[in-house]
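In response to the reviewer comment on reproducibility (Comment 2.3), we provide here a single inverse folding case reported in full, input and output, so that an independent group could reproduce the run without further information from us. The structure tokens appear first.
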């Protein structure tokens, strides 16, 4: 596994995405933390939507970032939306791993940007889950 693949999945220098998502259910995802402007469901939505757009760019399915893409939910995601975005996020991570295995220069650039962007939000996921007591200290 190369550095780009590690960066997309975590585990090299921070918790793996699998660990961060392990056991995450709808009740926890929809929970609101006072003073925090998003929920875990909203973060999953954001990570899924931005990942999907990035993968479309990296794979050549799209030439540019969608101009009208709403990267944050307008309303709290429903349970069905959360489950859809969680599944899409997981399948997108698998696709990203394949693309990162031997990326074109364009794919490398897009995937590196995705890895950095996602790492920021994975930190938010970790913080909320630790606050809820559902992610133990290492």
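Designed residues, in position order:
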């Amino acid at each position: 596994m190369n550095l780009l693949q590690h960066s997309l999945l975590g585990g090299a220098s921070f918790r793996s995405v699998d660990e961060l998502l392990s056991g995450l259910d709808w009740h926890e995802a929809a929970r609101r933390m006072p003073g925090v402007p998003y929920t875990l469901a909203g973060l999953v939505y954001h990570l899924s939507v931005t990942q999907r757009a990035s993968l479309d760019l990296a794979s050549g399915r799209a030439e540019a970032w969608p101009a009208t893409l709403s990267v944050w939910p307008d309303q709290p995601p429903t349970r069905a939306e959360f489950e859809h975005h969680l599944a899409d996020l997981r399948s997108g991570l698998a696709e990203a791993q394949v693309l990162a295995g031997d990326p074109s220069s364009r794919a490398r650039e897009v995937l590196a940007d995705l890895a950095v962007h996602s790492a920021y939000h994975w930190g938010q996921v970790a913080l909320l889950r630790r606050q809820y007591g559902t992610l133990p200290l290492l």
